[in-house]
Structure prediction request, 387 residues.
Amino acid sequence: MNKSIYSILLLSFAIPISRPAQAQDYRKFHQDLIVVDGHNDVIYESIFKGKDIGRRLSTGHTDLPRLIEGGVDVQVFAVWSDDKKWKKGAFKHANDQIDALERMIEKNSNRIELAKTSADIHRILSKGKMVALIGVEGGNMIENSIANLEKLYDRGARYLTLTWNYNLSWATAAAIEVKTASDKGKGLSDHGREIIRKMNELGMMVDLSHGGERTFYDVLETSTKPILVSHSNAYALMPHSRNLKDEQLAALKKNGGVIGVNFYSGFLDPTYNDRVKRLYREQYGKKGDYTLSPTRQYEKLSQKRQHEANAPMSKLLEHIDYLVSKVGIDHVAIGSDYDGIESPPRELEDVSKFPLLTEALLNRGYSKEDVTKIMGANFLRILKENE
Prediction:
């Protein structure tokens, strides 16, 4: 995990130093990068359930050995709770998850350490350790309380994804907003705007993945800091409420914010759901349960058919190309959503595969400076600007 002086300078937001292409192969270049994944759900899926991610697991997408193998230097661990299940006690649930993360870090303190500032990241990387950051996915976990927001910030939360898939009393979610054409009742309430202003004051990034379109624009009108869209893609290539339309991308660019590309096949590839249904029908025939959603059908496929159902990595690269064309190279990052998705792209099956993304970007014609920005520097820049 030791980073070169080149990478540490990048972390300090100095002018990137270019290197001739022949100076190192992609794996060496990848190891020299500061790789930041802006969204991973392994807390809820593994750590909170008692799995030891300090050792290599045979399930899931994430553990420390595979993160190290993948050259991941800064991992944002998402704290998440289902709004329906945690209508009460969501703040405690968030703290319980942070407790579990802290226990994991303490148990593996020779390999990973929690950061709360950009300076912490610099310090931890210089010791050859991986950096853990905390993001809270869902404003339900503050339970309408600014005091709770501050407490989560004090524990290390450096962004708040305003909503998950359900509306809150102070902000509306994309999954709900799209069900009605009228703007009535959509967006931020006065209390929601107060929460955004407090986040700006704290230095806590506002994350608009999952946020409704009206909420998106209300936040941009309110926030004095660049906003984050931690794990979303381009609506023009995959029309889904979780992805950003061109007009939103233009507004994001003007704001100076960053979008982290999501690895979920269902947010990348318009043919994914139909492919899952076809493969499920081939596997189960008349015995299949065709009332199941594509997500549930995918989970029942054989491993071979799951691999066939997954979007090709080229679809992810197409979204990166498109996003860069719309917002510029300084505004695109990575937000994999590993362990929060059932279907990652082929060749990017888990966190150990990140070097292959670096290789693919280089082969696609991105410069090393460009790849450095996408793979980590852009996320670190917006973190520092919010501080």
Confidence is low (pLDDT under 50) at residues 11-23.
